[in-house]
Design goal:
Length: about 400
């Protein structure tokens, strides 16, 4: 790092830059805007999300205990084939049978985890293991893939800028032969592009199986990290510019700390996806078709890009912090040098003032006879001024008065 502490933001690959640009230009609206494109904010300081586990230590495994602060559930169903799409909100899970019987692929999405009985009823209906249902309501899970006899269980973490803060949300997915069952903590997500593709028959999603739908959801979750990373990179660039211009403020330390904490949160969220997506793409059996594996490899590549970018930004943020601390130390040293020079100039002046401030009897020959001279006071003042000017000239010649 040079003397100006210029931190250069790493140049991403063309594919990464293109994705960031596409996300930043997307239009967002409605309740899903909390997972929308990047917004550069001077965000307030907030504590990280608190770790909470619903089951108490020593409880029977597989117990489903809902969070009393969780949102009430809403069941949104989307059944589709290559010819048609039907979607709606159901009040009773018995209504799901109509979709499952009519359509080759059914996507059932539950927003809100406040109803433990509903989650258990869905588990009974689809034959889900109690341990996976326990993981659904305990939303501190890391990204993972678990293979069961009749379904696959996947966990991913969505990320968003919500109310000017970086926050994460768990999404739990159950992949069956002809259905995808997803659980989210609350309404609003980054999956609207997937729904639009299904409604408007864009791409291959309407002609592929449930495994491709699971890939599309997982890919949308991973791509949702790019806008957040871009927002953090912009804040890092602004901090770097302020350091370069020496335009430091009283809250610079708090902003650097918040940025490091946000980057750590993003890193902790995206890192487990590396193993999960890789494991998902290499599953044996009939769960994943060969064509879907190719798309999963592309999703894995996006995860690798994000991991590398976030790690680089964390290192650069540490450099910014070190430069900021050094700049503060230099400023303090400059202030201390100035005060030291002033104090040094006044040392001889104080000596002279103290010397002639002593109350000796001037009637005696050796008791400061110069106090009786008619020009004694002006000569003393000129002497003090001369000493001060001389010391300033000496300091200047030594370079102590220059930057």
């Amino acid at each position: 790092m040079d003397s100006h502490a210029k931190i250069s933001i790493m140049s991403m690959s063309d594919d990464s830059a293109k994705r960031l640009s596409e996300h930043s230009g997307q239009e967002k609206s409605g309740e899903h805007s909390r997972l929308s494109g990047p917004k550069f904010f001077r965000r307030r300081i907030a504590l990280p999300q608190r770790f909470r586990r619903r089951t108490r230590p020593g409880e029977v495994p597989g117990r489903v205990e809902a969070d009393p602060e969780a949102e009430p559930p809403t069941i949104h169903v989307m059944g589709y084939s290559s010819a048609e799409v039907v979607e709606g909100v159901v009040e009773d899970i018995s209504q799901l049978d109509e979709y499952l019987a009519k359509f080759p692929i059914t996507w059932i999405n539950i927003d809100g985890l406040a109803d433990a009985k509903l989650i258990q009823a869905l588990g009974t209906k689809f034959g889900l293991h109690p341990l996976t249902l326990e993981d659904v309501v305990n939303v501190h899970q890391r990204a993972k893939v678990e293979d069961y006899d009749d379904y696959l269980f996947l966990v991913a973490r969505m990320i968003a800028l919500q109310e000017d803060e970086v926050q994460t949300e768990q999404i739990s997915m159950f992949l069956g032969d002809n259905y995808l069952l997803t659980f989210q903590e609350r309404k609003g997500d980054c999956l609207d592009p997937v729904r639009t593709r299904i409604r408007k028959k864009r791409g291959k999603i309407r002609t592929r199986g449930a495994d491709y739908l699971a890939y599309a959801v997982l890919d949308a979750v991973v791509d949702g990290y790019f806008p957040v990373v871009e927002s953090l990179s912009r804040e890092l660039e602004q901090l770097d510019a302020e350091l370069d211009d020496k335009n430091l403020t009283t809250n610079t330390t708090a902003r650097i700390h918040r940025l490091r904490r946000d980057l750590l949160l993003v890193q902790r969220s995206i890192w487990p996806h590396r193993e999960a997506v890789n494991e998902f793409s290499h599953l044996t059996g009939d769960w994943i078709t060969d064509e879907t594996r190719i798309f999963l490899r592309d999703c894995y590549d996006h995860v690798i890009q994000l991991v590398e970018i976030v790690e680089t930004y964390r290192e650069m943020c540490a450099d910014v912090r070190d430069v900021y601390v050094s700049e503060i130390s230099l400023r303090m040293n400059a202030v201390m040098k100035f005060l030291t020079l002033i104090a040094t100039i006044f040392i001889p002046l104080n000596f002279l003032a103290a010397l002639y401030g002593m109350n000796f009897n001037t009637r005696y020959e050796w008791n400061m006879p110069e106090l009786g001279w008619p020009y004694g006071y002006p000569l003393l003042v000129l002497l003090m001024v001369g000493i001060g000017v001389g010391m300033l000239f000496y300091f200047w010649r030594k370079g102590w008065l220059r930057e």
